[in-house]
Amino acid sequence: MELLWTVLVSGAVIALGIYLVLRWLGAAGLPIPLYARAPGSVCRLVSREEALKVFLLALLFRLVIFAAVGLFTCLVLYPGSGPGAALWTWERWDALHYVNLAELGYSGYIEDGKHLFLAFFPLYPWLMRLVSLLTGNTMAAGLLISFLSYAGGCVYLYKLAAWELGVGAARRAVLFLSIFPYAFFFGGIMTESLFFLTTAAGLWHIRRHRWWLAGVIGILAAMTRMHGILLIGAAAAELVEDRGYFDWKEIFQRLPALLLPVLGTLIYLLLNWQVGGDPFTFTVMQEHWSQGFCWISDTLWYVLQNALSYPTEVVRYQLWIPTILLFPVFFALAVYARKRMRSMYVLYGYVYLVLSYSLSWLLSAGRYLSCALPFFLFMAALTEKRRWLTILAAVGMSIGFVITLYGYLTGGQIM
Known about the structure:
The protein has 19 helices and no strands. It is mainly α. The chain has one domain. The mean pLDDT is 94.
């Protein structure tokens, strides 16, 4: 049974990957059979006033969620706990480690005599330490960074969707991302909002062919999460597809800008070398967190087994069942978008999805997928002129958002 599973899952993943690469090569001018160019972009620019409105509405949404969680914590979960509970209720799972990294630094935060937390990328805790000089509280600094980053990321996502699909799709893309069942992490002490902002801004400037600016933003994305380096691939795909052929002279001219995100990874490796004595210390520390590469079919197999038979039933529903269900949904969206969106989006989304599901112990798939931005563009395209599907998706995701957030706040295995 496992062999059949491996063949079917691996075959589907590899087949889609080959198709997307061939499609990109077709867009680059090679004679690929059955190649069809994606529909043209609407090219609708967003005014400053419109962008400011999106920013403020997104920030207001984040503040409303924060206030609702604070009231729920103070009045229901921990009655009489005081207003401080609105902050420390978010200090759970990885959030605790980010707070400690910001306060103690990578050298000072040690567990079992080891620098276990070198597995955490540095930009977010470094910003938390800086902003805490203004807020006077590290948790408040982390939340402020998340709120503002989320609002800024929504602006860039809105710009991307408006440019490709129009204003209606832009509104739906931001809506779907905001009510995605795991989107509450955008308002927590986690890296999601910062990675969302840097990725959305990077993709926007790539799409507008501002290569150096995209590269600088890519440095920040690569310092926030390992997936930030994928912006290099998105930029390369866009550069070639836009030209319609392999212009090697231009490729080599643009290469320094395209490769700038590597500097973010090098900064992370330098941090590892400085603290742990080896640029790749993080690979050893990841073993403590049971993390490493695992071929995607093997990952999905153990996730499926845990979804069916994990000893603690509540954990099946909180962790393993959502993890196994999310993959076919996102994979189907990639299949849908294969002929409808530019290669930079589909290839980036495909690689992001595969890498997110290629871990030896996958505990945070939903959180990772909340930053898989192209898929929210795909969903906006899918719901074009399908009001019933828009309503169905929005209601379903909203219910999932509330249930997942409740589970997180009450100590569930949602991380």
